[in-house]
Design brief:
363 residues; alpha+beta; six-stranded mixed β-sheet; five-stranded mixed beta barrel; 20 strands; 37% strand; globular
Length: 363
């Protein structure tokens, strides 16, 4: 964001405390563009859901301002914010049919009956439930109920849709299917979505950008590829995807690289978030960036490894090894590759590029 006019949703120096002492959200500054799908991602207690509830109007900010389309909404009642919401527990009215559930937000807005019927039909078709209008929620599966909840949030054409762990109650296969459905609906309608989850794969699949929360602070705000490939601190590296982690001391910084000594071994890395020579650093290395039995001279980092465990996962083999004192070092080996030395108990060599190994803060 480069100007206030470009921010459809804005959190400006927002704080939240429930007891007057401890801040669960600390000085949040966050801009969300019109039509963007932004996910707030983080562990339980990180402040992400509190931010969503403040945006919805169910919680009040202790300090700071929350703006929607340029208008401060701190003191605007939830029902006057023109926001659709989807919850994990669906929040459907059990005594109403599916069609009546969808018609409810339209009837309270005093829309004409013919318009309501047209909107309800369109919303049900959008979530592929065109023939389910006469059923009650109890007659639907979990996935169908979630589709109804999504349709109800969209039926009155809100400016903004908020989703709080909406897929958390679904099984893995259905959850993945719904991820793509929500993503496609967002693309077709160009509605602004703010989504809350603790599931990092869900965030990477669906989002335009992801805000990673921890301890009430956004640790990094970026697109999914940048977040995965270029974490800015040790928390993000560990929270997003699988990650090999070393802790050592910075011995040298030169020519855009650094050397971090780990268990007596010098590891060449990319300095991203370090204090200087003599400081402690956490090294972050993705398992798929490691090469087994590298050709001589092909990598600046080549080390002895002992194969401790092999797990066959279809498209790849997950190998756990002991490398530089780390017995939980993971390598993902494509199943198409042939490595005769990759047997449990064998001593082998592994290598990786310095650019793939990020030197981060020691926390």
């Amino acid at each position: 964001m480069t100007s206030e006019q470009e921010a459809f949703v804005r959190f400006a120096e927002v704080q939240k405390s429930y007891d007057g002492e401890t801040l669960v959200v600390k000085d949040l500054n966050l801009d969300i563009a019109r039509g963007e799908f932004l996910t707030m991602l983080g562990p339980s207690g990180s402040g992400k859901t509190t931010c969503l509830m403040m945006l919805a109007g169910f919680e009040t900010a202790t300090n700071g301002g929350i703006y929607l389309d340029g208008r401060e909404i701190n003191n605007v009642a939830p029902h006057k914010r023109d926001i659709g919401m989807v919850f994990q527990n669906y929040a459907l009215f059990p005594h109403m049919t599916v069609a009546e559930n969808l018609a409810f937000p339209l009837s309270v807005r005093r829309m004409a009956k013919a318009d309501i019927e047209a909107r309800v039909k369109g919303a049900l078709d959008m979530v592929q439930l065109g023939g389910f209008g006469s059923r009650r929620p109890a007659q639907l599966s979990g996935g169908q109920q979630q589709r109804v909840a999504l349709a109800r949030a969209l039926v009155f054409e809100p400016r903004l849709v908020l989703m709080d762990e909406p897929l958390g109650a679904l099984d893995k296969q259905l959850r993945e299917t719904m991820q793509y459905e929500i993503k496609h609906i967002h693309e077709n309608l160009a509605v602004t979505v703010v989504y809350v989850t603790h599931d990092q794969s869900e965030a990477l699949t669906m989002s335009d950008r992801v805000a990673v929360f921890n301890d009430g602070v956004v640790q990094q705000l970026a697109t999914p590829p940048v977040l995965y490939e270029k974490p800015e601190n040790a928390f993000v590296a560990q929270f997003i995807g699988e990650n090999n982690r070393f802790v050592g001391e910075v011995r040298e910084i030169a020519n855009g690289h650094c050397i971090v000594e780990v268990q007596g071994a010098p590891i060449r890395a990319l300095p991203v978030n370090i204090e200087g020579v003599g400081s402690r650093s956490t090294l972050s290395l993705r398992p798929e960036r490691v090469v087994v039995d590298p050709p001589a001279g092909s990598f600046p980092n080549v080390f002895e490894a002992r194969v401790l465990e092999l797990i066959y996962l279809g498209d790849h083999i997950r190998a756990r090894m002991a490398v530089c004192g780390n017995d939980e070092f993971i390598v993902k080996v494509p199943n198409a590759s042939e490595h005769p030395t990759l047997e449990r108990g064998n001593a082998i060599r592994v290598g990786w590029q310095a650019e793939d190994c990020r030197a981060l803060d020691p926390s």
